Amino acid sequence: MIIPEVLEVLRCPIDPKREAKLIIEDNVRLMCGRCHVQFKIREGFPSLLTEEAILPEGSDNLRELPCHPTRQHS
């Protein structure tokens, strides 16, 4: 289980500005509140590897997500 204090500092690893917060879902995954990509939680530890990310429905690759650096606007 991820404690609230840790969850408060975790951010979407796809977001280069690290502003997009992660939301815990059913204690089995974290979801980005901005791009909705999901990251599994294994044995209580989040796997924030982009290679293992679960893309939201309708997305074919990470570059399509609003958190991806190519989609960022200054």
Shape: globular
Arithmetic mean of pLDDT: 91
* Fraction in helix: under 10%
How far do the termini sit from each other?
36 Å
Main beta-sheet strand count, sense and barrel state: 4 strands, antiparallel
Q: Output the helix-strand order.
A: HEEEE
DSSP, total strands:
4
Question: How is the largest sheet built, in terms of strand order?
Answer: 1-2-3-4
Provide structural commentary.
The chain has 74 residues and is mainly β. The protein has one domain. The protein is built from 1 helix and 4 strands; from the N terminus they run αββββ. The chain has a 4-stranded antiparallel sheet with strand order 1-2-3-4, with no helix packed on it. The longest helix is centred in the first third of the chain and has 6 residues. It is globular, with a radius of gyration of 12 Å. The model has no long low-confidence stretch (mean pLDDT 91).
List the helices and strands and how they pair.
Blueprint: H1 4-9, E1 22-25, E2 29-32, E3 38-42, E4 45-46
Summary?
The chain is mostly beta strands and 74 residues long. The chain is built from one helix and four strands; from the N terminus they run H-E-E-E-E.
What would the keywords be for this entry?
single chain, mainly beta, 4-stranded antiparallel β-sheet, globular
